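Lecture notes, unit on binding sites. The following record was shown on slide 14. It pairs a sequence with pyridoxal-5'-phosphate.
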Amino acid sequence: MNEIPRPNNLDAFWMPYSDNRFFKGTPRMLARAKGMHYTTTDGREILDGTAGLWCCNAGHGRTEIVEAIQRQAEVMDFAPTFQLGHPIAFEAAARVAEMTPDGMDRVFFTNSGSESADTALKIALAYHKARGESSRVRLIGRERGYHGVGFGGMSVGGIGGNRKQFGALLPYVDHLPHTHGLPENVFQKGQPEHGAHLADALENLVALHGAETIAAVMVEPVAGSTGVLVPPKGYLERLRQICTKYGILLIFDEVITGFGRIGTPFGCERLGVTPDIITMAKGLTNAAVPMGAVAVANFIYDDVVNNSPAGIELFHGYTYSGHPLAAAAAIAAIDIHAKEDLPGRVREIEPYWQAAAHSMKSAPGVIDIRDYGLIAGIELAPRAGKPGARAMDVFRKCFDDGLLVRVTGDIVALSPPLIIEKPHVDRIFETLDTALRAIAA
Ligand SMILES: Cc1ncc(COP(=O)(O)O)c(C=O)c1O
């Protein structure tokens, strides 16, 4: 094996969503990845409890994906998709459309979840305009929602910390209440029983603004970045009913729930609610090449395309929409999903995962546990006056003990590759338990 590369200067890279000063003082560096593990630059093996960032669902370093990228790079490295096409982009779109719900067969390619969110919002606005309802310009998100960092997704998103530095954001945006913190739901397994009524807040926003001003509602079916919020039973169904009643488009941000994470190809299938638009990224290419996508109901595409004057119908797109290497990676990743039935693997291991996650109830500082599919959120009591500090200590201790977890505020979020086996599950929760006890001491 080649020597593990090490940087000799950490100054130039302004790291995203990072405590740059802390990191550069005590760097934790990953150099290689294979299957369920990373290897650090000092040669230590780290069990991946987060599939990178919720994205390497088929495990790391999949040969099929690597070879597909290599082959495509030799055949054609890049070609534009503005007024031109290349076969592999069409093939990738058709493969995505096979996985999305029936009647949602049109796919727009982006390069990330953030771009997918902004693309979906723009498509919703263009759709209403094409139908002669130009007054529908209002976008509704939800408190604690995360839809990436573009101005659209950030505005519709509801995480204060992501918004406060950046001025006025988009106008004509409102938010539904989040579904977190109902005392009846604490330590509930799977979908919580209480909280469907919170969707009725959409009726209040309709009464406040008028349905004729509302274009779309965007939510994550299971919210991840805010700390794993599982939708209460009946909640998404109600949102769907109200959107349908008022002609409002329902967008599911499936950037983390897509590609098998909760036991079906897309989360909407398991949750039994079909949106009008799905955004995706991450698992689409197993994260081997950046790519995102937006799948839309056929009627949306038809209305935008058929009601436009001759020429370009949607004035939106990215240089790299449908990039050949990303398309090759997506097709190879989708092949693995089908061949290895990754959603089926999730359903099989979910009861074991759920039991292991909830066994953390007695660990020091744990105040709630939530799970769904191959996701778990372990919420910790914040230290007085130091929000996030306890979870950050857990992150560091776990990493030093050979486990990668993700923390957001005082919540530890787990989302391992879907190829996980029971011994890995045991290791994850044993290491976490040790960390919680060590930092409490
Ligand atoms: C639900 C959701 N939407 C959008 C995004 C943004 O994706 P990206 O970081 O690829 O822009 C994320 C990232 O975690 C996400 O979880």
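Take-home: The mean pLDDT is 97.
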